Amino acid sequence: MTGVENFAGLHSDVGGRGRGAPVGATALHETGFFRDREVFDALRESALPRLIEANGATRRLHVWCAACSTGQEAYSVAMLLRENLADELTEWGIRIVATDIADDAVEYARRGRYRRAEVNRGLPARLLVRYFVRDGEEWEVVPELRAMCEFRQTDVCHPNADTEQFDLVLMRNVLLFLPERDRAAAFEVAHRRMARHGVLVLGQAEQAEDSTDLFEPEYVSGCCFYRKAGKS
Amino acid sequence: MRALIVDDSRFMRAHLRQLLERLGVQCAEAGDGCEALDMLRAVSDEFDFMLLDVNMPRMTGLECVKELRDARLGAEMKVMMVTTESDHAFIESALEYGANEFLMKPFTSESLREKLAMMGLAA
Prior knowledge:
Oligomer: heterodimer
CATH superfamily of chain B: Response regulator
Largest interface: A-B, 15 and 21 residues
Number of helices of chain A: 9
Helix content of chain A: 25-40%
Strand content of chain A: 25-35%
Helix content of chain B: 40-55%
Structural class of chain A: alpha/beta
Radius of gyration of chain B: 13 Å
CATH architecture of chain A: 3-Layer(aba) Sandwich
Largest sheet of chain B: 5 strands, parallel
Radius of gyration of chain A: 17 Å
Distance between the termini of chain B: 8 Å
CATH class of chain A: Alpha Beta
Strand order of the largest sheet of chain A: 6-2-1-7-8-10-9
Shape of chain A: globular
Number of domains of chain A: 1
Strand content of chain B: 15-25%
Largest sheet of chain A: 7 strands, mixed
CATH topology of chain A: Rossmann fold
């Protein structure tokens, strides 16, 4: 059993848990809206404006949330874009592809419905009332935000044959759980799928230098992001 | 950092005090909105933030936040509603009346800490 398979096993089966969050998503792959707020601050202040400038000719911005768990990260990116860059991004092709190895996590994310304990985590009240509608005991993401996000089941180390290029890749808090061989594979996939000028974001306790020479660090607003090695 | 905890439940006040004191916050308590406003009239600039319940006798949390904002009591003080209320329109009203954040009960210590950070309070 590889590390990824082992990871998948830990993520798997939530049968009989009804509408609760997937086991792996909460126990192993903890997530939350705007998790590690300083990362989102750095994206807003520096990385995204630079990507928007670089993509001015194509007017497209594609984001990949690898290991998206139950979807909070993808919806957080969507809110970040709508809140801060709506004027600049009018008529742009914005696309957020969010993937996870766990089917149940992907399905949960796709539903876009979160319980009180989940919207209490990391989500400012003004964004809660703007981008969610309460339905019974759950809060549902509004259609315009859901339309920005596409959720798929994919192994971060062995993605399908898609060739789509992404400007921003968030691969946070998954590498920690992978053995060295799978970490290297994940970096190769990220490198292949990332646009030439793209930005890779890892978890705060993760770094690329130990596993690959495909990326080089760049310190942005107090956070460490990565660019393809050898690119200015 | 100093906080004013306003809740008619002695248990909840003690719970919030314990969580905040672990974060190094000094706490004072009031049992309802009227008592909170009296305290603020006496020491308007004493508190960095207020945790405010909604359903209380004499004066609700919503009335309290409206009155303290209208009267400019503790003008720099952040206010977070901490309540079982979770109605969409109610949360919008609380924000319009001058609350800075909203935390729904029940909550975890981590979500309380995150909400404080959102308000720029590095607890």
